[in-house]
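Title: Prediction job returns without error message
Component: structure pipeline
Severity: low
Priority: P3
Assignee: unassigned

Description:
Job completed but the reporter wants confirmation the result is attached to the right record. Sequence as submitted:
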Amino acid sequence: MKVIRPLLTKIPKIPRPDVKNRAIKISENAIKKTQTANRFFLEVGEFGLFLWLTIKALFSRHFEFKEFLRQCFLVGNKTLPLISLTGVVIGLVLTIQSRPILAEFGAVSLLPGMVAVSIIREMGPVVTGLICCGKIGSGMGAELGSMKVSEQIDAMEVSSTNPMRFLVVPRVLAATFMIPILVLYADALGILGSWAGANLKGDVTFILFFTQAFNSISFSDFIPAVIKTFFFGAAIGLVGCFKGYTAGRGTASVGKAANQSVVLASVFVIIIDLIAVQITDVLQ
């Protein structure tokens, strides 16, 4: 026994299977996190390069004005029915939900001003921007993605045509200039829907309602809300074109580009709105 015991103590310990599997899982998770971080920073770099090429093509000599007008018509025409319905519903629902609370305090007369300020400052721009993310951003991503898959963009590059100047710049500018117009249109329909909601359980004349609504609005409410919609449009156009322009070669990449355009553009709209609210609060 005295001879065998020292020999047994020198036998190396074999790691248990569960400890070994746990170490393998930890290493795999670390590799996945590293790959995710690499993909994120790579996409940020690609987006920065895409933005620089877009700005460079914007100030080039030849500007595709006809394509810009066509994209403006497509952006407005495709989105107008949905924006019309959404604008009316926003004002209607906001009025119906707010009226009982104000009635408890005897402040129903403040309803037009409260709804008008809410719609013009936040509800109208943000909701319209998110709808445009789904309608305009996904459309641009799918359209440019299909052109990438069918090698039409490569054919333009081979024929010495700058696809950034012909495809990207008109779409980005169309979204930048048309979304503020759509937001103003949605704001007007929202206030009109609020008047309709106020008349469901009351009797308010059209002139009285709009007089009370616009007396509560100042330029400090209107101008920042309009300015940030230009950034909404630029972000939606850039993200949609970027995802479509950098899509893969397979047909499944078209749907993936459209889906990612909606998600990323919505995130950009929310972040821009947060920054705009903070800047407006500091300036006021």
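Comment from assignee: result matches the submitted record. Residues 98 and 111 are 7 Å apart (CA to CA).
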